Amino acid sequence: MQTDLPPFDPKDFLKTVPHKPGVYRMLSKDGKILYVGKAKDLKNRLSSYFRGTPTHSRIFAMVKQICNVEIAITNTEAEALLLESNLIKQHSPRYNILLKDGKGYPYIHVTAGEFPRIEFYRGSRKQPGQYFGPYPSVGAVRQTMHLMKKLFKARQCEDSYFANRSRPCLEYQIKRCSGPCVGLIEKQDYDQSIRHAVQFLQGRTQEAIDELVQKMGSAADTLNFEKAAEYRDLIESLRHISQQQYVSGSNGNVDVVAICVGSGLACVQVFTVRNGNNLGNRNFFPKLPDEEVSTPDILGSFLAQYYLNHDVPGEILVSETPDEPEVLADMLTLKQGRKVVIRQPQRGERSKWVELAQRNAEQALQMQVLSRAGVQQRMFALQEALSLDGLPARMECFDISHTMGEATVASCVVFDLNGPVKAEYRRYNIEGIQPGDDYAAMHQALTRRFRRAVEQDGKLPDILFIDGGKGQVTQALDVLRELQVVGVNVIGVAKGEGRKPGLETLIIEQGTGRLALPEHSAALHLIQQIRDEAHRFAITGHRARRQKARTQSPLEQIEGLGAKRRQVLLQQFGGLKAIERASVEELAKVPSVSQALARKIYDFFNGDES
């Protein structure tokens, strides 16, 4: 029951929240939604609620009732805003009363007729023409329409105004309209502008962007840098503003189900899409059996049980094919009384929905692993596996990172009973050794760490993990012996065959013994987490040091990204900062940049490296 759950700890919760856009739901003790909010940066926004005493009485009263907070990551802030609106209208949370306006979502309407008009629209979509949206806010529609004036010069005036013009208006004079009212543009040319506008609204913006890139290049060639800067800003605005969540009116109702398995846990994320709009998500953590079970088995069992008590949509999108999908689809078809399709999309808009659900599942699993309850459970397992007298109050792990001996950096990460203690992480720039000598690098880093502890009577770890085999462990034991440090258990974490997770061997008993824990062991999962964190921290430090010593562009470090592609990227985005902020989808729209290369560029700037 929910009353058996540990009390909500804001500090513990905030450690697990990412710096990403998304939506958060604050829940009361009985599981009711108190408040729904959106954020450009979830961690920063949620931290503001628990920092000091809220000055607003409404916020203070709400924070006192919070017993849990759920989050949903989105691709952009615009998606978060629309999802927030959907959830508020669906659940009517008590503390969102000020956000309820009783109005429908805003749309952009391209009217029918000889010279179609592009207009702001809200209401029932009965008039002839094409509708695009819904948009997250009126401001987003106005901003998009303002941009469309510059790009396509399609009329936005009322029909009565249009029919009674005898000379062009101010919009034509400032080059925001092509003047169809007085015949200053041929109908076929105007129709072409409307087609381009519709492509833009459908998200097919690459043609418009390519044209702007050419104009920017021409302006730069003629030394008109001010105009080139305008085109650059317009390109960036076009990419940003054209980001919608889903196109209204897409076919049918869909559930998007993604699964992530790791650290002895499984997380299943279910997104509900109705009439093309994302209505929210839920996390599920099914209890796994002690023996090994495959991911398709877990997903198949979950789907069979979940839809016993939930409405079954006509289409279920999955991140990977469950066990016996045909049998499962037949069962759900029989239950619902109509055909149900289960499929794993490989491309198109639906594949993006699955990717978003997959990212949320991975994030939710990481939050569960890093939660206090999860860490302590694995701490007890580690105590049992290593036959320790008590729980280790402090653990440290060292790792070495370099590129062919260049810019060697050692990392030290610290974990306690509550998980990572990032304030005590340290990096050591290694100097004066033979390039590529990992043993000497480890010896130097450990000497610096423990000499300071001895001289300043500093903290000592109960367990010292070393990412490496017997040679690295020997270096650690030698350092501790030289500095006369006692009471520290040294354990090496040697990688298994093919560096596959779960096949690690532990070097114990002063380097003379070996211990292989089962792949599903909670103790092994904790050791892997600590080792991986040390590896990540070392790579980040190494990259920064290497880049500081080099004069070349960071783009030159990405394999497969040659000079021509780098030039095209910089032209398309207008600079390195915009490339760093771009999503995989935006990068893949650039000519000659494949989906795989776009993912590699994105991972390079966002720290996702193996």
Automatic annotation (TrEMBL):
Complex and partners: Interacts with UvrB in an incision complex.
Keywords noted in UniProt: Cytoplasm, DNA damage, DNA excision, DNA repair, Excision nuclease, SOS response
Family in the record: Belongs to the UvrC family.
Record Gene3D superfamilies: 5' to 3' exonuclease, C-terminal subdomain, GIY-YIG endonuclease, UVR domain, UvrC, RNAse H endonuclease domain
Keyword DNA damage (UniProt): yes
Function in brief: The UvrABC repair system catalyzes the recognition and processing of DNA lesions. UvrC both incises the 5' and 3' sides of the lesion. The N-terminal half is responsible for the 3' incision and the C-terminal half is responsible for the 5' incision.
Compartments, record wording: Cytoplasm
Annotated UVR domain residues: 206-241
NCBIfam families referenced in this protein's UniProt entry, alphabetically: PRK00558.1-5 (NF001824), uvrC (TIGR00194)
Species: Thiothrix lacustris
Listed Pfam families: GIY-YIG, HHH_2, UVR, UvrC_RNaseH, UvrC_RNaseH_dom
The keyword DNA repair is annotated on this UniProt entry: yes
InterPro entries recorded: DisA/LigA_HHH, GIY-YIG_endonuc, GIY-YIG_endonuc_sf, GIY-YIG_UvrC_Cho, RuvA_2-like, UVR_dom, UVR_dom_sf, UvrABC_protein_C
Domain called GIY-YIG: residue spans: 19-97
Name listed for the protein in its UniProt record: UvrABC system protein C
SUPFAM superfamilies listed in its UniProt record: C-terminal UvrC-binding domain of UvrB, GIY-YIG endonuclease, RuvA domain 2-like
Domain UvrC family homology region profile: 256-480
Superkingdom of origin organism: Bacteria
